[in-house]
Amino acid sequence: MARTSKPWQTPGVVFNPTVSNEFQKGIDQLVRLVRPTLGPLPRFTVDGHNVRTRRPELLDDGAIIARRLIQLPNRNQDMGAMYLRQLLWKIHEVVGDGTATAAVIFDVVYKESVRYLAAGGSLVNLRKYLEEGTRFLLTLLDPSRLEMSGSDKLSRLAETICGDAELSAGLGEIFSLIGPDGRLELRSGRTRDIQTEYVEGSYWTGGLFSRQLVTNPLKVRAELENAAVLVTDLDVKDPSDLIPVLDAAFAGGFRALMVIARSFPDAAVPLMTEPKNRRRMLMAAAKTPGVDINEIRTSIHDIALLTGGRALIKDAGDSFEKVRPEHLGRARRVWADMEYFGICNGQGDPAAVRQLAAELRVAIASKEDAKERNQIKERLSKLVGGSGILWVGALSPYLVDVRKELAGQTAEALREAVRSGGLPGGGVALLDCRPGLRERMAAAKSTEERVAYQILLKAVETPARVIWENSGNKPSEVFSQLEQFGPGYGLDVLRRKIVHMEEAGIYDSAGVIREIVSRSILSASLALTVDVLIHKANPIDSSVDP
Amino acid sequence: MTDSAVSEEIIYQLAFDGSAWFAATNLGLKTSLDGGNSWNSAYASLKVSNSPIPTMALDCTSQAGGRIVLAGLNEALLRSFDGGENWERLPLPSPAPVFTCLALSPDFAQDGRFYAGTMNDGVILFSQGGQKWSSWNFGLMDFNILCLGVSPVVSDQIEQILYAGVPTGVFRSLTGGRSWQELTLPCGFEPVVSLALSPLFQTDGTLFVGTESQGLFRSRDRGQSWQKIGQFDEPINALAFDGDCNTIVLHGSTLMISNDDGETWDDWKIDGLLDIPVSAFLPISGQGKTLIGYWGGAVQILTT
């Protein structure tokens, strides 16, 4: 019996002009899915079958829509759609917002460029000028940048991102306090409301080894003042291991001691809780934070740095017998409950802490992998100190999960806005770049350069145009109204009137806009170079999430 | 403590409320009600021997006949409503901090808020005239506060802007001292021992910071960017603006003045200035006078 292969399993090679046509059709399909969600009055895309609820799902987030698009039936078109999908997901991972804007900008740049190339234009030159124009466009955005601080401003920005006023108020308040590097923890609330809580200093997962070590029964936690801190990845195997540590603490003049170790024997608890011993040295012991070896290493390194001590490391041949007073760190206050322990006002070298924080900021900017970036961000937040906890409540556990996911995405965008500042929202920041681009276009020395700036002009107009269309306004009418106003003015689509965006409190994150502009234009420019598609017999399962 | 006094006394800080002079010295807090002719210990009612007093703050705007004086000691903060006649101890966090500097809210008479810089405990925020305290210090990575500055004008919409000089540079708070942002000085992690905000800070965003060994820096955008100005080879121990917006620095123990926003500096030549190293000064705004404190304990008021 002859073996028949399915169309998706047929190997093959596809050349132009089919590639451009099909690639564009695939991109077009994804853009049409995402485009209606742009702006504060979005239209929805319906996913017919949500895996968890088994009901149709209304989607208004470009990244989620892109993620739910698993495959297009046509293999050539699928490649175009997946190319754009990867871009959108990357933008979502890096900045947490702006995927719909990126999609429409990508679409315009790609389509217009393909049209020019079909008429015989030079790809190499066009790409060169598109890339040059993108760098110029980024410089045009800089002067409009606004400092994003204060609860009100941040809440308004959050609301433009997530549309949930209560959630936005909580996030705005938290980010006005924790800043761009601070720690935010999202927890499921026990009520329907959004609540905020703050923790001074830094804290880690790893609670007390025994409830008997509690010193404040009301709060069920141990609280030490002016404490010595010993941090190690060693196991305390016997109560006698603690004797050199106690000797070192006494020699250092301490009256309180916190031991952070991998394990702790029950037999050591009476030594620490004996009233006579407690009067001489108040002690507590908590578990070393971290699951894998890297996490443990970085945690103990950072705790030692913050407290000015030296960590005892098993692999370095350290043991408890070798403890000296200089190994002990110091902190003004240390606490530990049954889940966490925390340090307030560690007495480490501030210059070393600030230096490490600066290095981590650079590392965050250079890491492409979202998981690695998040790990570094969490580490940085503990060095910086001060944490906000957002208790997310809703009507049902499912809605709590949905709201928490929304809070997480909005938080990323807010963090970026606090770090990089804000820009007038509603697409106005990009619209205000038009005079600068027109000047460059007028001074262009070649056709390709002029065309590149024409394409960029169209690209910067598109987000605003789509927002207006989605809210039921005619772009031509809005453009003619805007001609009477200066820079910074745009259409407030909720109130349906022209306003000064900054005065009306309508912002976008500068970091998000910059990321969208550079990634979407450069990515579209790169897509123009695709000439050949190769289909393999067993394509990689594209249903796997990126 | 007279002009001719020669002792080991060092004046850290001076204050003036229109009638009384106060001097925080290494031997305690002194007050004079007769223009500096005679000085008495403001701690007399405490019946303690001379205690070191690192810092103090004086509410010159207080109405209702009282002069509020705040005095920070090791592990204690005292408040007096009668210009130092009687004192009360204010509630503090535990463990009790060592205070290094105090800064009153510009609207202290109304809001009763002030800020206390500490050694090892960051900045503590006090409200209700000192009856309540809170400690946040989010983002403050150096808890040793050397000097504090508060934005001079209060607006209902904008939280007070604070600057804190620390051994590794300077931090800024846009949230009334609850959270802090690192500001990057061109000289790296250098101790900032003095700072002053322009009287027109709300409009011009200008502030100066003085460092221990790297001279003086100016920012015209609330601390976002800094320019090194002048040639100073000794610590900038104190910084202030006088009533005419001239900038005055205590360079080592020499007073210098700039009347062009810090571009050029000259020795400040005042008639009557003693030939003794200066340890503190206080321009009295609106009166054209300046209080000068010297090493050895002498204090003068000079017309400038």
Write the layout of secondary structure elements.
The complex is a heterodimer of chains A (546) and B (304).
Chain A: E1 12-15, H1 18-34, E2 45-47, E3 57-59, H2 62-68, H3 75-95, H4 99-118, H5 123-141, H6 151-162, H7 165-178, E4 183-188, E5 194-199, E6 202-205, E7 222-231, H8 242-251, E8 256-261, H9 269-273, H10 275-280, E9 282-287, H11 293-307, E10 329-336, E11 340-346, H12 350-366, H13 370-384, E12 387-392, H14 397-420, E13 422-424, H15 428-431, H16 434-442, H17 447-470, H18 475-482, E14 489-492, E15 497-500, E16 507-509, H19 510-527, E17 532-535
Parallel strand pairs in A: 4-12, 7-8, 8-9
Antiparallel strand pairs in A: 1-17, 2-3, 5-12, 6-11, 7-10, 10-11, 13-16, 14-15
Helix pairs in contact in A: 1-3, 1-4, 2-3, 3-4, 3-19, 4-17, 4-19, 5-17, 5-19, 6-7, 6-14, 7-14, 12-13, 16-17
Chain B: E1 11-16, E2 21-25, E3 28-32, E4 40-41, E5 55-59, E6 68-73, E7 76-80, E8 88-89, E9 98-104, H1 108-111, E10 114-119, E11 123-127, E12 132-135, E13 147-150, E14 162-166, E15 169-173, E16 181-183, E17 192-197, H2 201-204, E18 207-211, E19 216-219, E20 227-229, E21 236-241, E22 247-251, E23 254-258, E24 266-267, E25 278-284, E26 289-294, E27 299-303
Antiparallel strand pairs in B: 1-2, 2-3, 3-4, 5-6, 6-7, 7-8, 9-10, 10-11, 11-12, 13-14, 14-15, 15-16, 17-18, 18-19, 19-20, 21-22, 22-23, 23-24, 25-26, 26-27
Concise summary:
The complex is a heterodimer of chains A (546) and B (304). With 546 residues, chain A is an alpha+beta fold. Helix content of chain A is 49%, strand content 16%.
Structure notes:
The complex is a heterodimer of chains A (546) and B (304). By secondary structure, chain A is of the alpha+beta class. Chain A folds into 3 domains: 7-145 and 425-535, GROEL, domain 1 (Orthogonal Bundle); 151-199 and 386-420, GROEL, domain 2 (2-Layer Sandwich); 203-348, GroEL (3-Layer(bba) Sandwich). Helices cover 49% and strands 16% of the residues of chain A. Chain A has 19 helices and 17 strands. In chain A, strands 6-11-10-7-8-9 form a 6-stranded mixed sheet. Chain A has a 3-stranded mixed sheet with strand order 4-12-5. A two-stranded antiparallel ribbon of chain A has the order 1-17. Chain B is built from 2 helices and 27 strands. The radius of gyration of chain B is 18 Å and the shape is globular. The model of chain B is unreliable at 2-6 (pLDDT under 50).
